[in-house]
Every structure is written in C-alpha cells, then in structure tokens.
Amino acid sequence: VFRHRYRSRRLPAGLLLWQAIAQSAALMNARPPSRFRLFLRWLLAPLLIMYGKRKPEHLHALRFHRFETEDDVEEVDRQMIADGLAQARSVSARGNAAATMYNEFVDEQSRGLVDLVGTFLLRAMKDPDAPAAVHRIVEKQWSLVWPGVRDQLYWDLAASMQLLDEEAAFFRSLRLRHWKAQHPPVWPARRHCPTPLTALRARLRYAVFPADSHQADVAIAAWLGANLISWGEICNWASLLHFLFTDRTDEYQLVNYIIFSKICHFVAFGLIPGVQALLAYFDCTMLDVGDAHPCHETTTQSPVSATFELLRVALAAFAFLLLRTSSSGGDAHVARLELARLGLAQGSHSATGISKIAAGPDGSAPLPARRGGAVLCGVVLLDAVVFALCFGVGFSHFCRRRRDVDCAQVDCSIFYDWEEGSSLQRWPHEVAARWLQAHGLGHLVRDWLYDQRFWAYMDFAQTCYSLMLFPYVLLGLPPCKAFLTHARRTGYDKAGRLCWALSNQQMLERSSMLHSFAVQDRAATRMQAFSRGAAARGAAGTPSSASRTSPARRAQERGTERGWRGWRGAAGDANV
C-alpha cells in the first residue's frame, strides 16, 4: 500500500532515501533529550513529504528537513514569526493603500463638485444684459473671493467625511482643549499691588469677543445698546472704549473695529436722526411762521456732538492706518497665536501640525502674513470720498444761504439764541473760539461758532454721511466679512489674551465635550463619595457592629456560645 501511494504521488525514489539518511544522521548526533522527538520525525517524514507534494506551501512553511537540533527548531520558530509579521505588514500596507486610494478618489470627486458649484454661482452672478466692463469687474472680484470660499468648503467636506489623516484630526481636536477656565484675579498672589484694570480689560474682552464660546445674550444686548444709543453721547464713549481695549496689532480686531464702528455710526447717526429729521420737518411745515422761525429748534447737533463726530472719524482712520502698516494676520499669525496658547515651541513637530491646520486642507498656498483688509480698502476709500462730498456740499450750501440773508435788514438774533445753553454743551466751542482768536481768526467765531445755521449744516452733513455708510452693513455680514476681508477670526480667552477663535462648529463640539466632562466628573465624584463612605463604614464596623445587631440576634449568639462552652466542658470531663 505504501509503495502504491508512493508511486501514485510520483515522488523521486532518491528523495525518500535521502530523507531517511538525513534523519538517521541527525538521530546519532542529537542530544539525549531530543532523540525520541527526532525519531518520531524520522518515521513521519515520508508521509509529510507526500502530503507536502499536494500542498507545497505547507512544506515550505514547516521546513522539516532543517529540524536537526533544538536550536534549529527555535530558529524556525523565529523565522515563522518573522514571516507572519511580514505578512501582517503587507496586509496592513495593502489596507492603507486601499484607504488612501479611497480618500483620494472621494477628495477628487468632492473637489470637482465644489468647483462645479463655483462655476454655477459665477454664471448666476453674471447679468447677460450687463456690459463687458461689468463682467470683467465681477470676474475680478470673484477671483479674489472664491479661493477662500472654496478652501473653506474643502475643509468642511474633509472634516465631515472623515478624510483627514490621524495627525490632522488630533491637532484639530487639540484646539478644543486647554482653554483658560478662570479670569485673572484683581489682586494676583505674587504682586504687591492690585491690577484692577488688567482684570477689567480681560473680563470685558472675553464678554464682548470670546474665542472659545458664543457671546452671552445679555452681553450682546448690552454691547449693542451701548453702541446704538446716541443720547448723552453713549455710543461715542462706547466706540472710544472699544478702541482702547482692543488689540491694535491684530488684523481681524482692527477690521472688526472699523466695520462695527461704521455700522453703529450708520444706525445711530443715520437711520435714527434721519427719521427724526423727517418728523421734525413735517411738524415744522405744519406750523404758522408768524414772527418766530419755526424750525430753529429742530436741529439736534451741538458742539459736543460735532466734537465726538470728528473724534469717531479720526479713530476709524487711525485704525485703518494701523491695519495697513503694523497689523499681523494670515495663517502664520493664527498659528503663532495657537502655539502661544498651547505653550508649544516654534519649529517643533506640533508647530508643523498647527501650521498645517491653519493653512487649510491644501496647505500649499497659504495666505500671506498680512492682507490689509482686502475689499475693506476700497470701502474705506469710498468712505473718504463720501465724507468729503457730504461736508463739502453742506458747507458750500451753508455759505450760499448765509449770503442770501442780510442781517442788516433782517433780524438774525434768532440764529444766536443757543448761546444761553449750559456750560457743559458750550465748552468745545469756547475752546475753539479761544484758539481762533489767538490765531487771528476771531471773525470766524461770530460767523460760524455762534451761528445756529452752522450747526444745522453740521447736523445735515453728519446725517447724510452716516446714511452713506450702508456698504459697511453689507461688509459686516459674517460671510462677507470672512471672505471679502480675508481676515482670520480671532478673539480673547478668559485671561484677556488674543487667541485664534474657534468656528461655530468647533464651539458646539467644545460645549458638548465640556458637558460630557461635567457628567463624568459628577459620576466620579459620586463614586469617590461612595468609596469613602464604604471605607469609613468598614473602619467603624468592628466596634459598632454589636450595637447595630438586633437584641434577639445577640441573645441567640450568647446562647450558642454558652452551649458550646458547656459541650466543651463535658467533653473535657469525659476525657479526664
């Protein structure tokens, strides 16, 4: 039967003989503890060889012809382990290659979809009836705006479809952690004097422009109310306070100050006074003129308001000058802010990861270090032209109307009744009058500063100029501010330090993360309290266990103990 099976497998005759000789030599040279095992291998070698003829991979994996000593067995085991690790690595490499190919395919398809959306939007924005010059302007502005929108869409798609690599996902999750949990104290522990201004500035910064969370509803209402109420010049004081506590070296903070100040200017001194002026003009036309001028009290302008108006315009111009000359922004700037917040060193591996996150999904074409406001520059230039136009036209109209009235023939005392006002309202014009008289321009004091028509002209110019600030309202919308100014959003932590602000989605993720941490902390606190209570009860259980035992149980235990003692005594007497 063996010969028949041997011949049926068509093995060479010399192979079996060589295997027997090799195993016999190994048996003679082997050490005593391994002779029995090698003898069994010598008996089973022909069967294994024939079995290996059908499955050569098993014969190659087992290598029976090398089992000569125990050292060879260990070597074969190590070789099998190495082969298994190599196969596992190859399988892992093939899996990673497949995952990479899938990610590349999905990324390519998503990019094509986003580009298709951009092409559709550009076609929709072009008016077929508009001239070619308008089409060129639209295409130029689109080329400036669309790259930022496209990169943001790429990033959101990659994050939502989990196409980010593990390192990018780790650094993205790191942005949600390690934020300051407390405000700075009024009196620091290592200071000999209190720092109330620093503590107040930190609290005000975080309340108005937080970087790690949304603004509270109360803070939003209070801040908007302070910037929109013109009574008592509250809005101008709020604008001055905003300029003082903001970080004037950051691009986004300066852009935000200019846009927000102009929007509040549009509402507080444009819309509201415009409606008031229309109502006052309607009342004025309904009155009988008689001997008195019916409209001499309709103007709301005063020397104090004019002074604050000029101060407000000057602060906005100074902020724009700082924006164009000494501000910092862009991807590198926000990456430095994030490294400073996390306490990481420049040039480290973590710095590279944070820079990659700041540069967006591509990272190949990061924004320059300073953008300078982008579209905001054109809006500010238009603002300057409108300011000169409103005040220039208003002043020329004032001079022309003033020449038309001859005060030698007409009583003009009605235009100078405002001199009887309070000293608080008159101090700016008194300072200006002294300055004009000191420089030989005393005739202008009577002609301008004491003339009610001059302040009516100032009121008209201010209202017209404020109404022309409507482009800032459009620029202040969140999408327009982000993609037209190219300023990376920044904010402040609870310590009052400038930081790279989180997006809305990241703020929601951080709030849910903090909620889960709070739930875990409460559960851990309950478990710790339970463990301490159990330990305390265990420590106090030995002396107080008798006091907690019922009287019936204690009587039963005493009876059992007495019975046991009596039985032991009787047994002792019997033994004696």
TrEMBL record:
<keyword id="KW-0732">Signal</keyword>
<keyword id="KW-0812">Transmembrane</keyword>
<feature type="transmembrane region" description="Helical">
    <location>
        <begin position="263"/>
        <end position="282"/>
    </location>
</feature>
<keyword id="KW-1133">Transmembrane helix</keyword>
<feature type="compositionally biased region" description="Low complexity">
    <location>
        <begin position="535"/>
        <end position="553"/>
    </location>
</feature>
<feature type="signal peptide">
    <location>
        <begin position="1"/>
        <end position="26"/>
    </location>
</feature>
<keyword id="KW-0472">Membrane</keyword>
<feature type="transmembrane region" description="Helical">
    <location>
        <begin position="374"/>
        <end position="395"/>
    </location>
</feature>
<feature type="compositionally biased region" description="Low complexity">
    <location>
        <begin position="567"/>
        <end position="576"/>
    </location>
</feature>
<feature type="region of interest" description="Disordered">
    <location>
        <begin position="535"/>
        <end position="576"/>
    </location>
</feature>
<feature type="compositionally biased region" description="Basic and acidic residues">
    <location>
        <begin position="554"/>
        <end position="564"/>
    </location>
</feature>
<protein>
    <submittedName>
        <fullName>Uncharacterized protein</fullName>
    </submittedName>
</protein>
